[in-house]
Amino acid sequence: MITRLAPTFVLTGVTGKLGSRILKKLLENVKPSDIAISARDPSRLASLSDNGHRVLQGSFDDPDSLAASFKGAKKLLLVSSSDTSGKGQEHHRNAIKAAQVAGIQMIYYTSHQGASHTSLFWPCRDHAATEDMLEQSGIPYVSLRNGFYMDVLGQFTQSVQYTNAFSAPLDGPVSWTHHDDLAKGAASLMIRSEPVPKIVTLINPKAMDLDEVAKVYTKIKGSEVRRLVVGEEEYVEQLKGHGVPEQMAQGLLGIFAAAKEGTLQSNDGALGDILSGKFTDVEQYLKHSQ
Question: What is the pTM of this model?
Answer without folding.
Answer: 0.95
